[in-house]
Amino acid sequence: MLPTRTFSALLFDMDGTLLDSIAVANRVWTLWAQSHGLDPAAVLHTMHGVRAIETVRRWAPAGVDADHEAAAVTLSEMNDVDGILPIGGILEFLASLPADRWAIVTSAPRVLALRRLEAAGIVPPAILVSADDVSHGKPAPDCFLLAAEKLGVAAQDCVVFEDAPAGIKAGEAAGATVIVIGATHATPMETPHPVIPHYADLRAEIMPDGTLGLSSIA
User: Fold this and answer.
1) Inter-residue contact 18 to 12 (CB < 8 Å)
2) Secondary structure class of 108 (helix, strand, coil)
3) What is the mean pLDDT of residues 172-184?
4) Partner of 209 at 20 to 30 A CA spacing, among 45, 62, 109, 129?
5) How many Å apart are CA 13 and CA 129, to the nearest integer?
C-alpha cells in the first residue's frame, strides 16, 4: 500500500498525526459549544483539522467576536495538555529523518503547536508552518505549499502525513502524495490513500540520489 516512489521531503500534520490530542480538543470545544447553546456533537464533527477561527466563524451566533472567541479557545487548549501522547513509533521515526527534510504543517496557532509538541515529547523541526502563517487554512493547500517552499522542494515531490479530511484535501490540492494515519480514528476512514495505524512499522531510507524512500518493516 505504501508508495513505491521516493520523495524530497516529508510534511506532517500535527494533531492526530504526530500526537493524540483528541481528548483535549473534544473537552475544550464541547465547553465552547455549550457556552453558546450549540450542539457539541455537531461542532466536534467539523472542527478537526481546521483552524479555530474557521470553526468559530462557522458556528458562532451572530454578533460574536470571532477573533476573541478563537483566542479564548486557544488559551483553553494551552492550559489543558492532559492526555496528550505521541503517536506510536513517531519519536523513533522522526529521529531517523535528516533534520532538513521534514516539516510540521498544522492548523493550530504556533504557540499551541509548540505547547502540544512539548507535552508529547516531540522536538519541533526548523520548519513549522502554523495557522498564523497562512490566510487560507486547510482544506486550502497554502500551508503545504509554504512548507515545501521553505524546505526548498516542490510540493509534488513531498509526502503529506494527515489524519483529517480537511488536511487530506489540502495535501491533494498541493499535488503531494498523501498517507493517512489512522491511530485516532474510531472507525476506518474511506480514502483512496494508504492508511497506516502508526509509525512503529514504517522505515525511511536515504536513497543513493538523496531522496527518501518509505517501506514497511512489518
Assistant:
1) yes
2) coil
3) 96
4) 129
5) 10
Amino acid, res. 126: A
Please identify which residue in the block is written with the cell numbers 490566510: 135
Mean pLDDT of 166-195: 94
The residue annotated as part of the active site, out of 13, 20, 80, 157, is 13
- Residue 79's Cβ-count burial label (10 Å; 0-12, 13-18, 19+) is exposed
- What's this model's pTM, rounded to 2 decimal places? 0.89
The torsion of the CA quartet 189, 192, 193, 198, rounded to 10 degrees, works out to 30
pLDDT (mean) for 13-36: 94
Is 163 annotated as catalytic? no
Task: Write the DSSP string, 57-95.
Answer: HHHSPTT--HHHHHHHHHHHHHT--TT-EEPTTHHHHHH
Compute φ and ψ for 168, nearest 5 degrees.
-60, -45
Single out the catalytic residue among 15, 20, 80, 157.
15
Cα–Cα distance measured from residue 89 to residue 105, given in angstroms and rounded to the nearest whole number: 19
- Residue 71 CB partners (closer than 8 Å, separation 6+): none
Domains of the chain: 9-21+84-216 (3.40.50.1000), 22-78 (no CATH)
Contact 53, 67 (CB under 8 A): yes
Pull the grid cell for residue 67.
477573533
Active site residue 13: yes
On average, the pLDDT of the chain sits at 95
